[in-house]
Amino acid sequence: MNDLSYQDLTRGISRNLAPLRTHNADVMQGFGALSKAAMAPGVLDEKTKELIAMAIGVANRCDGCLGFHAKALVRLGATPEEFREMLGVAVYMGGGPSLMYAANAQAAYDEFSNAAA
């Protein structure tokens, strides 16, 4: 059973990034600009891009990524079916370790979905 609260995790990461926003402002602004440009709707819509980002978060075993992208996918209306299909591709590309993180990603999605309901 996963006792990790992804809502708590994402709040904690945001709080812990505050010193970087102050002392590494150029880096943080650059990362923010990169994020904004990469996620802007284009040929691919924002939800598709978030599904890709979540799959990469699963493959790279990044709990913070799972939390932030699950929250965004819930906000963008990703269905449970879309989410599970994306997890299948992530597992295919990342093997057993990605399967373990797919379970965590599902928990993050469920947590943010329940909070939004």
Description:
Residues 26-105 form the Carboxymuconolactone decarboxylase-like domain. It holds the Pfam family CMD. InterPro entries: AhpD-like, AhpD_core, CMD-like. The chain has 117 residues and is mostly helical. The chain has one domain (6-116): AhpD-like. Helix content is 82%, strand content 0%. The protein contains 6 helices and no strands. The longest helix has 37 residues, at 80-116. The radius of gyration is 14 Å and the shape is globular. The two termini are 23 Å apart.
How are the SSEs ordered, and which strands pair?
Blueprint: H1 6-16, H2 18-23, H3 25-39, H4 46-59, H5 63-75, H6 80-116
Domain Carboxymuconolactone decarboxylase-like: 26-105
InterPro entries: AhpD-like, AhpD_core, CMD-like
Organism: Pseudoxanthomonas kaohsiungensis
Question: Helix segment count?
Answer: 6
Helix coverage percent of residues?
over 70%
Which class do the helix and strand fractions yield?
A: mainly alpha
Q: Distance between termini?
A: 23 Å
InterPro entries: AhpD-like, AhpD_core, CMD-like
Domain Carboxymuconolactone decarboxylase-like: 26-105
Pfam family, one: CMD
Protein name: Carboxymuconolactone decarboxylase family protein
